[in-house]
Design goal:
heterodimer, A: about 60 residues, mainly alpha, B: about 230 residues, alpha+beta, Sortase, Chain: A, eight-stranded mixed barrel, hydrolase (chain B)
């Protein structure tokens, strides 16, 4: 998978390394900005209130 | 044929290698999620809480004639000081305990299932919740609060000094009675002026709730210099 991506990037090894880094950072940005905030409330790690089980915390 | 040239790998080896890479990627994403939950959400929430707190203090300074009771609670009603959770510890208190409110790095006072009383009410229980981990983690050190410790709520014009009289280190998350106006589980039977802090426990999970109860000792007017009460010095 990563080998396939590497072979399809343009330029020499240095250019490919820089593009790879940019792509990796873009993925981390998307995860932190969109994916994790969406996923977090679905996971049972951070409910702090007492409620009557009617999903009052959501 | 290219895969044959690269090392003579067959289709099975190539498939296994792709599966392996996917598994490694999933592991990295999970690790990143931990970084996000325990660090990045704190950065965001702390920034937000600090800004909101400054807004509240500015509004207080700009409108000295409005009494604390009449204040719009949109930005927050005041600040909670708990010396046991760290010197100079303070957190903004806002209305509501929804995920959206608590994720701003504040403590929220309950509006449901049992509505909180306000500290300036003649009797009642001032109940609130905040995150134990992530999103500011304002109640992370709640286990450092012991019997007799001071909890001070700062409104626009009054310091409300409470003294902790009961700690419940584990209870069900459905135990809404801990936020009753007369919290019987803490041993009280008479209406009084109480404060209740709730958060999740053990750390990094939401299995149980941790409860701290306090009772008002005295209310002290805020002077022009906003001199701290002795409990916070």
């Amino acid at each position: 998978m990563y080998g396939w991506i590497w072979r399809h990037l343009p330029g020499n090894a240095w250019a490919r390394a820089v593009i790879s880094l940019v792509l990796a950072l873009a993925v981390v940005y998307l995860l932190f900005q969109y994916v994790f905030p969406w996923a977090e409330p679905l996971l049972p790690f951070n409910d702090v209130t007492v409620d009557n089980g009617m999903a009052a915390v959501r | 044929m290219t895969s044959e040239k690269r090392g003579g790998r067959g289709p099975i080896a190539a498939t296994i290698s792709v599966i392996g890479e996917i598994l490694i990627t999933l592991g990295l994403i999970l690790a990143l999620f931990v970084v996000y939950s325990l660090w990045w959400t704190n950065v965001i929430a702390d920034r937000h809480e600090k800004k909101a707190g400054q807004t509240v203090r500015q509004q207080w300074a700009q409108h000295p004639q409005i009494p604390a009771k009449g204040l719009d609670t949109k930005d927050g009603i005041g600040f909670l000081h708990v010396p046991a959770m760290g010197k100079n510890y303070e957190v903004l208190v806002k209305k509501g305990t929804s995920t959206k409110v608590l994720n701003e790095g504040v403590a929220g006072y309950y509006t449901k299932p049992v509505a909180s009383a306000m500290p300036w009410d003649p009797t009642g229980n001032f109940t609130m919740a905040a995150h134990r981990d992530g999103h500011g983690a304002k109640f992370h050190n709640i286990d450092k609060i012991h019997l007799g410790d001071a909890i001070v709520f700062e409104s626009k014009d009054t310091w409300y000094v409470y003294k902790v009289y009961k700690v419940l280190d584990q209870t069900s998350k459905y135990n809404v009675h801990v936020t009753d106006q007369v919290p019987k589980e803490s041993g009280k039977n008479q209406p009084g002026r109480y404060i209740t802090l709730t958060t999740c426990t053990p750390v990094y999970t939401s299995r149980y709730r941790y409860i701290v109860w306090g009772e008002l000792v005295r209310a002290q007017k805020v002077d022009a210099q906003r001199t701290l009460p002795p409990e916070l010095r």
